[in-house]
Amino acid sequence: MSSSARSTRRAVRGVIGRLRALGYHDGEATTIDDDEVVRALAWFKRDAGLPATAGPESDDVRRALVARHGS
Fold it and tell me: What phi and psi values does residue 50 have, to the nearest 5 degrees?
């Protein structure tokens, strides 16, 4: 696995963790492709005023999560 792929996986795990901490995701799913995580991310993006097309690896999503949850 390339370093960029590892970096992306780590960032996505961070997104899922922050979604859990903020109460958007409380299930067992641990990958961004799981339906419950997709729904949680969509809910968060809608609440944060982000475009529906913003992916979990986007800087806008990460900045919004950090702003609401902290580092």
Answer: -90, 155
Domain map of the chain by residue range? 3-69
From residue 30, give the alpha-carbon distance in Å to each of 11, 35, 38.
Answer: 12, 11, 11
Contact 65, 44 (CB under 8 A): yes
Please write the tens of the pLDDT for every residue from 6-62: 777 777 778 888 888 888 888 788 787 888 888 899 999 999 999 999 988 888 988
In total, the chain counts a number of residues equal to: 71
Residue appearing with tokens 């901490």 = 21
- HSE value, Cβ hemisphere, 13 Å, CA-based, for 20: 13
Contact indicator for 45, 61 with CB cutoff of 8 Å: yes
Q: What is the DSSP letter of 69?
A: H
pLDDT at 47: 93
